[in-house]
Design goal:
The protein has 87 residues and is mainly alpha-helical. It contains 3 helices and 2 strands. The radius of gyration is 20 Å and the shape is elongated.
């Protein structure tokens, strides 16, 4: 049975066997729906995974452009390349 930590919106953001030192103390059962949802998060959709990879790739692309001084790929070319790599 864990102690839970919540974010500003009230969503469980962590669990512990020990009470929190500087946060409100709240204890939930292991089978509480919020604890189960926290421990077993829903995997991202294909689209969410693509967006996350694209965001990271945009940073890398910007660094490559800066280093080379050219426009190696357009953002749309990058988006298309990432989407083709998804399972």
């Amino acid at each position: 049975m864990p102690y839970v930590f919540r974010d500003a919106g009230g969503k469980v953001k962590g669990t512990s066997r020990h009470p929190p030192a500087n946060a409100p103390e709240e204890f939930l059962r292991d089978d509480a729906p919020e604890v189960i949802a926290y421990r077993n998060p829903t995997p991202p959709t294909r689209e969410e995974a693509a967006e996350a990879e694209i965001r990271g790739s945009r940073v890398l692309l910007a660094m490559m452009r800066f280093a080379r001084g050219d426009d190696a790929l357009t953002e749309q070319q990058l988006v298309d390349a990432v989407k083709t790599r998804l399972p």
